[in-house]
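Re: weekly structure request thread

Next one in the queue (207 aa):
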Amino acid sequence: MSDETNPAETPAETAAETPTTEAPAETVAEAAAPAPAGRVADPKDEDTLVLETPHGKVVIELRPDLAPLHVERIKTLVRRGFYDGTPFHRVIEGFMAQGGDPTGTGTGGSDLPDLPAEFSSPQKARFQRGTLGAARTNNPDSANSQFFIMFAPSSHLDGQYTIWGKVTQGMENVDKIKRGSGGSGMVQGPDKIARARILADIPLDEG
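Done, posted below.
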């Protein structure tokens, strides 16, 4: 299977994600772009991601307490506009929707170094409906830009992938994302993220 960026479908399978980068993970030093002036509201807005999809908005609570490096990466890429126009290239009914690859092939990523694993124990966080995880290759330290949103709980992913967020509003819009076909779940004519923004960057008068 050419897609190298899939979360595992069964405990026996390995989930894969972005192509690995050889730079040591500990050399990752990225500064998120400063938030534009405009919105002054709840401090939690800085850790809230809003995705605009063809079916409506999806609001995501970021979890820096679980995965600070992954959350910082998401913020950096969002503020670059990296995710705007990217497809949900692999979507499996009853399992998950995967995106974050601008190439739409399942093998793409950003120009930033790969991230070290920030796996949470099942006692701390589990893959439930609405959970967002970082996709990766067989190398635990290979997450980059790709992610997946769970349609349903998948306990075999617990402790095996980094959890960095959870959908708090708009899960019904996630449910409408176009599904793929075959075992790989690759989507023809996939739905795309129109725009991704951190809530703190959205002017109050925009809602």
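The chain has a mean pLDDT of 86. The two ends are 43 Å apart (CA to CA).
Next request, please.
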